[in-house]
């Protein structure tokens, strides 16, 4: 951790962040009390879901969020730290969104990852940190979450194999 180590430790302790299976650290901070029944959701959902959930999400050191997908649109919010590269694989192409706090440099404060798209994220400055939020509706359930293997991404997105190799773990 080359800089801001104190701030990062503070955030981890203050918000009780835990390691996420995709990489990075998170804490769910909102889960609606109300439930949508499975039969009232689109067919891709396999269980009842909360209306909505949101998490804090931290990337630190050399962490990255490995390519994964979920069954609902996910809204990312930038709060603090280095700009973050958000990679989305969609319709055979790679899209890159810069989350950050400098709109003049092309950063956005919020970005939406469409449901079903593979996506990954990393800080744009090596060994720095970023503190973000992620909101989904219907609410998050680990049954909606799938980590990508290099081989399966390679089939449809072979043109981006360097990125895919670097940002998959399985
Ligand atoms: N809860 C646990 N993991 C996640 C995640 O990756 N995204 C959202 N929105 N909520 C979560």
Main beta sheet, described?
6 strands, antiparallel
In round numbers, the mean pLDDT is 95
Question: What would you call the structural class?
Answer: mainly beta
Helix percent reads: 10-25%
Bound molecules: guanine
| Amino-to-carboxy terminus distance | 25 Å
Number of strands: 13
C-alpha geometry: globular
In short:
With 170 residues, the protein is mainly beta. It contains 3 helices and 13 strands; from the N terminus they run αβββββββββββββαα. Strand 8 and strand 9 form a beta hairpin.
Task: Summarize the structure in words.
This protein has helices spanning 5-14, 150-157, 161-166, and strands at residues 18-19, 25-31, 35-36, 49-50, 53-59, 65-69, 74-81, 84-90, 93-99, 110-113, 118-123, 130-136, 146-147. It is mainly beta. It has a six-stranded antiparallel beta sheet with strand order 1-2-5-12-7-10, covered by helices on one side. A five-stranded antiparallel beta sheet has the order 9-8-11-6-13, with no helix packed on it. A two-stranded antiparallel sheet has the order 3-4. A hairpin with a 5-residue loop joins strand 1 and strand 2. The longest helix has 10 residues, at 5-14. The two termini are 25 Å apart. Bound molecules: guanine (GUN). Guanine is lined by residues 20, 26, 28, 53, 55, 74, 134, 136, 140.
SSE diagram, text form:
Layout: H1 5-14, E1 18-19, E2 25-31, E3 35-36, E4 49-50, E5 53-59, E6 65-69, E7 74-81, E8 84-90, E9 93-99, E10 110-113, E11 118-123, E12 130-136, E13 146-147, H2 150-157, H3 161-166
Antiparallel strand pairs: 1-2, 2-5, 3-4, 5-12, 6-11, 6-13, 7-10, 7-12, 8-9, 8-11
Bound molecules: guanine.
